[in-house]
Amino acid sequence: MDDLSALAWVQEELRRSLEAAHKLLRRHLKEVESASGSDVSAVDPAVLRNARAQLHQGVGALELVGLPTAASVLRAAEAAVQRCIGRPASLNLKAVEAIEHASFALLDYLQRMLGGKAVSPLALFPQYRAVQQLAGADRVHPADLWVMDWRWRELPANASARARAFDADARGEVEQQMLTLMRGPSRDAAQRMSTLFAELGAGARDAQTATLWGLAAAFFEAQAADLLAPDVYGKRVASRLLAQLRAVERGDVQPSDRLAQDLLFFCAQCRAPRDAAQAPRLWAVRAAYGLQHSAPVDYEATRLGRFDPAQIAQARKRVAGAKDAWSAVAGGELHRLSGLNEQF
What is the reported pTM? Predict the structure, then answer.
């Protein structure tokens, strides 16, 4: 974002709101612990409601300055607290720590943005996943944190693919190759899947369906060319493709926007092909959507929010105090020598 002054203001306001929410959650834990052995469900959920309100305030602030992806992380934490309001005893120490770590990661992310460092919202995914799981979300996917102005685009015709209509034989081939891929990585199966979907795209009757199958062809081509490592999210996308094919077989021809966006996300997460000859379908998709310079991000690595920002700030103050005291001692103020170790 361009307006760093607004971001600086939001960061400070957000820090205060999150600290207040954390204190309220810790207070709730103490109240539940005190009620142990009695009716824990009778614990007043007002403390949790106040914590949720603090998180909700933070969501609004992030949306106000145009950071919807960051707001999504905090909204997930808010949903997790909301879920626990009806079941106060379900919010245990592990859950509170997950919410706190999501907050720490978010503040770290904003601090890096303020410092002019390049940081992808995908770096927030480990913490986002943890709070989404607490909230009982139906969907947890790294593409949720991917910033992309999605719209359907027509892909260039694939000259090497013969047009093929979808039928029982095509579905059977897709199921066979997908079963192979579910058992483990297979370049041959991935390449065959890429060819199958390219052929289905060439035979599609409408532009959006052709684009969806073209994205699928590029996705599998990336795996066949060893430009995209398969993971659990990629396998789920493959399963959803099969469900989409079955829907088409039943006569539902409306392609899924969400599925198309997730396929495009993986095309962006690939290592860039060295040229069009290495992965022509992937190359065409990345060119059509302006992703030629897109680089993969390790969204499984936990890099943000590994430490409490309050403790980091305190440590910096102590280091600054120690440096000041040491300079004074070096300048002859020996009476300050005895207090030097108090900084640590």
Answer: 0.85
